[in-house]
Amino acid sequence: MVKTNVETVEDSRTKLTVTVEAGKVDEAIKAAFKKLAKEVRIPGFRPGKAPRKMLEQALGSDYVLSQAAEDLINDTYALALDQEGLRVMGEAKFEDPEDLAEGKDFTYSVVVDTRPTFGLSSTDIEIKMPPRETTEAEINAQIEDSRERLAGLEPVEDRAVEADDFVMISFTSTLDGEDYEGSSIDKYMYELGRGYMPQEFEEALIGANPGEQVVAEFAVEDTGANTEYAGKTLHFDIDVHEIKKKVLPEVNDDFAVSAGFENLEDMRKEIKEYIESQKQQSYDRVMDERLVSELADKLEGEAPEALVESRKASMKREFENMLKERDIEFDQYLAMSQIDAEQYDADLSTQAHIATTNDLALEALAAAQKLEATEDDIAAEFVEIADALKMSVEAARAKWQEFGLNTSLKDEVARKKALAWLRENAKVTIDEEAM
Fold it and tell me: How far apart are CA 401 and CA 71, in angstroms?
């Protein structure tokens, strides 16, 4: 334990003063000499065996004391924050500490930005969820997906091109009257209605018959990814060779067999079991995510950048550790995910902002409903922590005390209680149309 004092500097800035008793100071100085004795080679002495006076002569006592002071600050800063229940963010600004001296208390001060507390515009939360049990509509949707995958194409000879047709086409094109790379295509089966080409291109095809040539011309829109072409005119001369329409298989036993099932009854049964299995694994998680997301929309404040950046750094470390455990290099992950480092960083920033906002919202709800961590709550948490880390409860408590993690544990318990309150008090409407 250390002696602490807190004073408010500004609304969100706090000055924390920490005093370490003389006995701990002497221990730190001895530890610093012992550590340096192993690192510094003194002629005539084995590593770790050089007398203190020899080390002081070689290094200077000020250097050793500064190392001891640095170690003391590192060892006591988190503990002091925890004692005062300070929730900090961003970079701490340490003031120049007083000189360290044997037999005397040591005092240092640090100015920190404290984590904000926000209110909520309302605690009335409403969400929609699909039924927990599998519905006929969900089974039918899966069957329709299978029909789409197993669909065939049949030639059309008695009409012109319609929306959603497949059309065998060839074309030549120009950009502002000039050829460009990829400006000509020969015998390509194009599917209308998918948005692969601009609307003007598809509109030119509709109504055309095989053997006809149609023209499409339009200005290229600026989508942010094609700035060099934006505003220029694309001209297409399109030859229509053949029209085909998609034919979905009839839903019967033959269709089920082609999809890998014994018959249609077996197909519906297995699809139902699969959906139920997926729901069992994810239903409660999805409901929690929707509840917290709705709550976050009612947060009266914006997550500070420093808090988001801290969360982002933590998420990045956790993810990189996970990759390391699986023997996957970061570049390998990017390649497998088909994204670049810039997109990964942008996605991580978004996730960190959402996670931080959600935490602030749950903390606001906990404060509004006076949901605090009790001694029994903390005791239960340490039982779980000890079990996960394969250590005794007493050892787990000592570790959390040493690293100043008790405040964060209390916050985590309060957020869990807030989520439990949401589950019990929010209005959840079951809607078969909800996804």
Answer: 17
- The answer to whether residue 420 scores a pLDDT higher than 80 is yes
Q: What is the bridge-based pairing of β-strands 233-247 and 213-219?
A: antiparallel
Compute CA distances 187 → 51, 167, 171, 206, whole Å.
88, 9, 9, 18
Closest CA to 297 of 414, 420, 426, 424: 426
User: Identity (one letter) of the amino acid at 434?
Assistant: A
Q: Which helix (H) or strand (E) holds 55?
A: helix 52-59
Label residue 181 by pLDDT band (50, 70, 90): confident
Q: pLDDT band for position 55 (50/70/90)?
A: low
Q: Is residue 362 a contact partner of residue 292, using CB atoms and an 8 Å limit?
A: yes
83 vs 113: CA distance, rounded Å:
17
Taking a C-beta distance cutoff of 8 angstroms, is the pair 192, 163 a contact? Answer: yes
Q: What is the pLDDT of residue 257?
A: 96
pLDDT at 337 > cutoff 60: yes
Q: What is the pLDDT of residues 102-126, one digit of tens each?
A: 899 999 999 999 999 999 999 999 9
How many Å apart are CA 197 and CA 212, to the nearest integer?
20
Q: Nearest Cα to 53, choosing from 83, 33, 71, 35?
A: 33
Give the DSSP per-residue string, 182-244: T-EEEEEEEETTS-SS-HHHHHHHTT--TT-EEEEEEEPP--SS-TTTTTPEEEEEEEEEEEE
- Lowest-pLDDT range of 31-45, 253-267, 368-382: 31-45
Q: What is the C-alpha to C-alpha distance for residues 64 and 36, in angstroms, rounded to an integer?
A: 8
Q: What angle do CA 194, 196, 200 make, to 5 degrees?
A: 95
In the three-class reduction of DSSP (H, G, I as helix; E, B as strand; rest coil), residue 391 is classed as: coil
Place of tokens 């008793």: 21
**Over the stretch 43-53, which tens digit does the pLDDT of each residue have?**
656 565 666 66
